[in-house]
Amino acid sequence: MKLRSFLLAVVAMMLAFVATPASALEPGRDGYYNTGTGVRTKSVAFITAQVYAISHDMKGPLPAKNKRAVIDADVDKRFSWRMMRDVDAEKIQKALREAFAMNGYSDQAKIGAFVGAFKNELKEKQGVSISYSAASKSVSVWVQGGGSATIQGEDFMKAVWSIWLGKIDQPSLGDALISRLP
Questions:
Q1: What total number of domains does the chain contain?
Q2: pTM for the whole thing?
């Protein structure tokens, strides 16, 4: 089952990075619509580094083209990352914890379970899959070469989606992740 999930995540990431015009928004074979892709960057002093490429997919009905509507949408959806550089597990965990705090989410048990999936250093080209199941009201995170976790709650899903579509130090990334919505 883990191999199947891994293969589906890899295929989803590969398909997500194939650009098509917004007017041609069609679901993939798995029923997911790619709503956009972007690159997470981190700036330190005068240097901006590309950290990971990220794509967002969701099943219909598709919400209005605004970040809050996508955050609140109780539909199957997912983020897929592809690392563009090596990053220590502690740095990823810290960044995720800070993003939850920035968006006002404070359930430390759920946050701890989520960031605990990032057990090892993420190497360039490794993948991360974060998905929400509307049927089970749960968020699952899978880190290639790391761990995985499933956390219950629609509240947690909204908190996770707020990391990229809510308050963020790179607002253009959230815009890119919904840029293909009609």
A1: 1
A2: 0.85
